[in-house]
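Late entry, A4P complex.
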Amino acid sequence: MPNNFKVKENLKKHHQPSLLNTVKRGIYIGLGSNLDNPVQQVLTAIKHLRSAADVHVVAVSNLYKTPPMGPQDQPDYINAVVELKTALSPYQLLQFLHQLENQQDRSRDTERWGARTLDLDLLLYADTILNTDELTIPHTGIKQRAFVLYPLHDIALHKALPLIGQVDALIAQLNEPQPEIINPNKLDV
Ligand code: A4P
Ligand code: MG
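Prediction complete; structure with ligand written out below:
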């Protein structure tokens, strides 16, 4: 820690504030869609994440077809999780995720947990804990949601994550069957 502090102080002295942000990994984004060709929506969002200058996609889970949590009079969802590396702060990353949602015509005028073209949730940001009006990390409900845990299990490093623990143990506690894995080439969902 003291060494790290020294490096930062030196960078400040040399007026290189952009180098103060270090690249972090262990950042997980949950993707969900249940409107306007959900498989394509999720694949498009992953493509946009892959081509973004400020983030680097490390891993991509399978795509899962999941029953809706919340109002039941909406279509099933397609869910996935990706792991990123980035030097963006949690707030900068959230802003970027909102831009991607808007780009894919995300409407926010719907009922709570209603249908959407694209939802991007910042699930985990390494070992960061945040509880503000704008951002809660880890994202609420990770441990209780099959549509998050199964895709997370596909890609989680060593299957144990800071703050939430062993993903397979959480899945065992859920006592819910694994949702159907969707072949991305099959677009009739
Ligand atoms: N916000 C706070 N923390 C975060 C975070 N870690 N990541 C704030 C992203 N956003 C975060 O989010 C509302 C506000 O949450 C944002 O302004 C942000 O500042 P939103 O995306 O506009 O709305 P939302 O997604 O409808 O709200 P909420 O309550 O976060 O819903 P969830 O938890 O995302 O659940 N069923 C299935 N099968 N699969 C799904 O993916 N998703 C939902 C939405 C409901 N049912 C589902 C699924
Ligand atoms: Mg959300």
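The domain at 14-184 is CATH 3.30.70.560 (Alpha-Beta Plaits). Will revisit in the morning.
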